[in-house]
Amino acid sequence: MLNAITREVSPSIQHCQLTHLTRKSIDVEAARLQHSQYQRCLAKLGCDVHCLPVEPDLPDSVFVEDTAVVLDELAVITRPGPESRRPETASVAKALKPHRELRPIESPGTIEGGDVMQIGKKLFVGLSGRTNAVGIEQLRAHVLPLGYTVEGVELKGCLHLKTAVCPVASNTLLINRAWIDTGAFADMELIDMDPSEPFGANALWVGQAVIYPLAYSATQKRMEDRGIIVATVDASELAKAEGGVTCCSLIFNG
User: Fold this and answer.
1) Based on the structure, what is the number of domains in the chain?
2) CA 102 to CA 60: how far, in whole Å?
3) Would residue 46 be called left, alpha or beta, if left means φ above 0 and alpha means ψ between -120 and 50 degrees?
4) Catalytic positions, please?
């Protein structure tokens, strides 16, 4: 059984952190409806969904992926880049404690889960505005004894590693080459997002399908042409908060 931790959309999401996007009005009720559809999609694909209570004073708190890196052996509780996001980790750590041994990222290290992509026993970590070299070294120290390797990846023009690249099938990545050096993925099959959809590389592979934003139909077709099953969700309101489909859940084996 796959577990999925999610969190309700905060009523203060309009005040979310933004790095690469211009602030637009977010319809909170529409965002909540879209988030509910997303959770139903997770359940349909075999996840046991545990939704944490709303955090009214934490605008970005729906994006639970950034608060932890969950492996089969342990969970690393992150230290997000913006100070305003750091209180988000406490309730996620409490939810994970029954399932995993917990290890922290400590000051001056920062890591956000959106910058960490696991492929087998290898962790690719984006060197972004939210994740620094000290945080990466702390992560490496936690996971190296368990047989994992950690490789830093340079980014440009995007928020997180998973804004630019995500796994969508075995040994297959969906990628935006403009935002990331492909050299780290030389031994993997790459599917390029459609040039008209620069944010189309963010996708969530769950079981036998990929959860994917409805807005990126051209890139969706590229995946389907490669035999990938795509389950679409409307993620348009959360996208205004610089969030993608990976951001809204922490998925791990039970």
Assistant:
1) 1
2) 22
3) left
4) 160, 247
* Tens of pLDDT, residues 63-121: 999 999 999 999 999 999 999 999 999 999 999 999 999 999 999 999 999 999 999 99
Cis omega before residue 59 (within 30°)?
no
Give the whole-angstrom CA distance, residue 251 versus residue 210: 13
Contact in structure between 199 and 191 (CB atoms under 8 Å): no
pLDDT of residue 21: 81
Tell me the H-state helices in the chain: 28-44, 89-96, 133-143, 161-164, 217-225, 236-239
Cα–Cα–Cα angle for 92, 211, 158, nearest 5°? 70
H-type alpha helices, 45-147 = 89-96, 133-143
Q: Residue 161 in 3-state DSSP?
A: helix
Quick one: DSSP state of residue 157? S
Overall average pLDDT of the 50-62 stretch: 97
The CATH number that applies at residue 46 is 3.75.10.10
Q: Are 47 and 251 in contact (CB under 8 A)?
A: yes
How confident is the model over 149-194, as pLDDT tens digits?
A: 999 999 999 999 999 999 999 999 999 999 998 999 999 999 999 9
Range of the domain at 70: 2-253
Distance CA 159, CA 242 (A): 8
168: amino acid identity, one letter:
V
Question: How are beta strands 116-119 and 122-127 bridged, if at all?
Answer: antiparallel
Number of helical H runs and strand E runs in the chain = 6, 15
- The pLDDT tens digits of the residues spanning 232-241 come to 999 999 999 9
